[in-house]
Amino acid sequence: MDTQQIVLASRPVGSPTIDNFSFESIALPPLQPDEVLLEGLYYSVDPYMRGRMNDTKSYVPPFQLDQPMLGGVIAKVIESKSPDLNHGDIVFGMLPWRVQTVTSAKGLSKIDDSNVPISYHLDVLGMTGMTAYFGLMDIGKPKVGETVVVSGAAGAVGLVVGQIAKIHGCRVVGITGSDEKVKLLKEKYAFDEAINYKTTGDLKTTISRSCPEGVDIYYDNVGGEISDAVISNINFHARIPLCGQISLYNSTEVPVGPRLQPMLLTRSVLMQGFIVINYQSRFPEAISHLAKWVQEGKIKFDQTIIPGFDQLPSAFLGLFKGNNIGKMIVKA
Amino acid sequence: MDTQQIVLASRPVGSPTIDNFSFESIALPPLQPDEVLLEGLYYSVDPYMRGRMNDTKSYVPPFQLDQPMLGGVIAKVIESKSPDLNHGDIVFGMLPWRVQTVTSAKGLSKIDDSNVPISYHLDVLGMTGMTAYFGLMDIGKPKVGETVVVSGAAGAVGLVVGQIAKIHGCRVVGITGSDEKVKLLKEKYAFDEAINYKTTGDLKTTISRSCPEGVDIYYDNVGGEISDAVISNINFHARIPLCGQISLYNSTEVPVGPRLQPMLLTRSVLMQGFIVINYQSRFPEAISHLAKWVQEGKIKFDQTIIPGFDQLPSAFLGLFKGNNIGKMIVKA
Lengths: 332, 332
Fold this sequence. Notes:
The structure is a homodimer of 332-residue chains. With 332 residues, the first copy, chain A, is of the alpha/beta class.
């Protein structure tokens, strides 16, 4: 039986383009014991995947040339030779960008699709929610009355971070890239302030006005000059969870900027990089909180769902243009 | 009664010079209740004092022009109107650079001078030891078998950090600025490796060779390009206590360098600035450990003791030329 897959055709230099991907038809192998045949339903596209397109050592190995892209996928079991999964079950896994795929049942987690739309499991109840929760709660450690600044605020992680911070009694300021997103953050998501960095002349001063008592937690999704401006307003004993650096992912040279250490030193600031997998043993804790907050209406969210498996490359490229509000998902 | 004091005559632009200081004769006021008349015995000069010579907001207020410099001083009580202190007592305090001074007894701590030389209380049993201990133990959290790199390794704090790390079963690599100091670190202080950054062409590669399993803890006293080289060898889940940035203190423009966040992010690294006063409530814990290690001969140290109150400015300037091995102290 044949299926379609999307492979990394060439490594991008700077910003990735549609030409870095190509579509192929491949034959699926017959099922072996403990394997399942899956059909993809929802595909997650995430900024961190840009790093895997480079041939550099990181916390995850690089994608291989002429091999399929890999990402978070929610899929339906079509056929099973595993005692753990049955036809019709819905699963989550890190899977190749294929219409159908054959894979070991190990590494797949079964999803309960009775309570919430399936796509939530790629979002607030999935890696996105875990990333927001642990970065803010474990590294940021918000306290009532503190000021939290979130960059990439209208992105999948940013929206959840801001709302968890509000639940914990913080003043929340979001930085984003359009007036439409500013409006959304303030009206739908109850951010105390939101700043369009593209139209704000002096970002440092604008942040200072939005944060009259300084910045206690800076949840950083973007890096670069936006982060410089936030960090120049950082408070004594502040915490900076480093979640993403999307503004730098397409750099072709080593990004240069003001040295941070003098500021971190004189203000006793903690800065910590993390990846969500560090917290795997504590995922149930986060899911129980997040599911409760979603049910109570305390966490709302947006998803940008693009229909069509063949739209995966362009949906991914759209992340770097800020095309998404909330989680960017491709629906097969 | 008159005494001599050293005041900040002008603020340095870039490297401080002897002309930034001036000597004055002043009249001491009569003693009021709860005050003591002190005579300085040992004066601490420390790199962080450079920051206070600028008129910028920091964790301690700037020195005022035409007012005396302030620092850690061990002094003898000459006359007392305090019920807590008697003639002949030895005390530590943050005091002006004066031959004699009148001050409140509050804020002075009495020193037991029966067991160890008095000057140790400006060093391993004083702020230097506290700084080394809490930065390494509380932020660095060393584990047996880990690799610890210390910059400014032959300085007061660096020597103690390296030895505490050895006590905890770590491989210790020091970075310093002369062959004499390299020899001392390896022979007297049992550092596993020591590197003279001034004569090493490719510091990044040299560190990589000295740390075949990467760097788990980088105790940073210097900042700048030395730190860039260490951080390029940093391990997953590493910790970077920021204690000092002496290489940048005399910069006249905002220092620029490679952006750190991508590296900290992809390797889940923690970087944390601190000042020793954050740990004041836990000083007794550190002192009890350090005093024991000193008695057991597990912590050795050097002091560079310069005689003469009038040598205070030049001793301070010498810190930025690497003139000291271990703690730089001026003996009245």
